[in-house]
Write a structure and sequence with these properties.
Oligomer: heterodimer
Shape of chain B: globular
Radius of gyration of chain A: 21 Å
Radius of gyration of chain B: 22 Å
Number of helices of chain A: 11
Helix content of chain A: 40-55%
Number of domains of chain B: 3
CATH topology of the largest domain in chain B: Butyryl-CoA Dehydrogenase, subunit A, domain 3
Strand content of chain A: 15-25%
CATH topology of the largest domain in chain A: Butyryl-CoA Dehydrogenase, subunit A, domain 3
Order of helices and strands of chain A: HHHHHHEEEEEEEEHEEHHHH
Number of strands of chain A: 10
Strand order of the largest sheet of chain B: 1-4-5-8
Chain lengths: 379, 397
Amino acid sequence: MPLALNEEQRMLRDTAREFLQNNAPVSLMRELRDSGDSKGYSDAVWQQMIELGFPAVAIPESYGGLGFGYLGAGAILEEAGKTLAHSPFYSTVALGAAAITLGGTEEQKQSLLAAIAAGELTLAMAHEESNHHQPNTVSLSASASGDNYVLNGKKLFVAEGAIAHKLLVSARTQGNNNDQDGITLFLVDRNSEGVSCQTSTMIDSRNYADIEFNNVKASAANIIGTVNQAFTILDKTFDYGRICLAAEMLGGAQTMFDKTVEYLKDREQFGQKIGSFQALQHRAAKMFAELELTRSAVVGALAAIDDDSDNLPIMASLAKTRANDTYRLITDEAVQMHGGIGLTDEMDIGFYLKRCRVSIHSLGDSGFHTDRYATLHGI
Amino acid sequence: MSTLDQFRKETHDWLVANCPASMRTPQKRSEGVYGGRRASFPNDDAKLWMDRMVEKRWTAPDWASEYGGGGLSAEETKILAQEMEALGCRKPIVGHGFWMLGPALLEYGTEEQKLEHLPKIARGEIRWCQGYSEPGAGSDLASLRCKAEDKGDHFVLNGQKSWTSDGDKADWIFCLVRTNDEGKKQEGISFVLFDMETPGVSVRPVPLITGESHFCDTFLDNVVVPKSQVVGEINKGWSVAKALLVHERTMMSQIERNMPKPKFSTIDYAKNYLPLNDDGTIKDALMRNRLANHLMRDQSIKLSQQRAFEEGMAGTFDMRVSTIFKYISTEEKTAKDSMVADMMGMTGAGWDTDRFTFDEYTKTYEWMSNKALTIAGGSSEVQLNLVSKRGLGLPEK
């Protein structure tokens, strides 16, 4: 399992860094928020990302991708996290393409993955039904009707839910609401009859929607994986997503840390730089240690995806817990160490603080993942 | 097969053929081999194992052959360590000569000093101890006062050193002394080597809370040290001392890897000593959470060490990161020892080997003795100073 990026991956990271710093800096996010934009990203920037081949990075070459693997996708997301650059990349590539790669038929992979790689198709994962991440809790029902299924129920907090071309919908085809067995994954056009979206405004200014399914017809041909057996694919897809989200969070944490250290070297009180105070130095040093440990966990987890390691669930829970805790620590400390100005809208810190909060609760907070990690270790 | 794969295979085969079976069992604390003039061995196999490794020149595998080493590359050295770990081979010999003085001599010693001292370390003939701290110079090491008076071709030393590990068993000492009282305190220090049998040297073991006395007070009363035994330039010993501290910290950062492989994992302790549910999981939710957090931290630290190594090989390692390892590794280790003792409950406070198993007694012992890890080699607080100043470039007061 390699933990150092190879030359190709480093070049991809540098390309992403340069592109995002120049074309999607935090000021772009601020503009989008101020203009009341409902998507939270710029179509023009997304188009340029497509031209640079970003959606194709983690897709295998045999399906029209570039085959950089998830260490490549993670490098892009980390850079995006640094400038809070939102795009359909995360939902479509990290989650959507993963589900299709893991569960799709050869035919589905040929058509869907190629479309994702070419930037023609965007996806959203419609799964959660409560205010907390619960991978095996599915009550939205899919009942068989001839060769087709009819979906009824509601999904909450679907990232890109009001924008993506297609939705990946987890549905109950058998058993009780919390059973792992009996879940089926459907690919549904967002514009299908009976699908209605209500957008939620969230503090990170990205787009989320609650989606109601009212007698929505889904063809059996659009099932991803096996009927009743989607949980395995779903949880593995979530692992890919958890790890990729952790990579984005790492980028945000790194930027907030760098900005805070910069401020400690600049700000003077009591006639000296506040960074000379040991009370702040030791806290900065501890943040640095946490950040480096988190980086190792995230890189290790991305490598575990690329290696198709049996350790994937453990690595995903490790990476997400560490990213949650470290991003929270660093954004909280960034505010505290900047003092009052840290709470002003003029500073960017608040944007990171808010994005951090939403990220923590996406795909599992630290309580969820520590418990899962413990269970995976049989304790 | 690549050259390295070939090396791995040959190494594996050699270890299988030469490492006695008893040297591939978990090592007890009392079974360490340190060599020296008064070398003692826990059994014949330990001596045989050391002799074979000495002959193979793998006691200091990465030192050049003229200095008694094996001349292996960094990759080969790592492969040897990995193969030894995989087979559960004990370290044939350990000590301050290998992981502290040796590397410092390689960097700062004269050719004569290297040729004189390194082969003796590699062959296990001389055991070294460290004379750094003094009663008035702990975390503020540079304020040390042990006086070295210039007498032309030699110095005369007078003063006291504290915390000399195994000072009563070592043959030679590497020692920091004050050769100049004026100017910056760091600029009047010299790094000297001398035989512990030199007239005027006396040691007194200091009993610790564990009941043992690994550490000694060392008294120097008109001790004569020739100038040829100064490492680096006179008054510039602080640079040597700091380089050596880096090696000490590196060793302490890999504390888990350098200690005998534990017989039981933390999960084993949880399962053996805590109340469990019917499905074998831990009843106490807070203890389960504490254990999970430690497992995660352990894993993150191991990944970080591996990443540092790989980035080092790829030439992309950020040296600032090296400042965090001593702090995070030793903090984790001591917190984990405390957790394991808690898991054992009253048994974790047992203090004899009749009522308690040797392993139980050892855990109680380790909880106490490993408290030294966050103090020795630069306390955690000193480490955080280093991280913030050297790692992050935060300003001095």
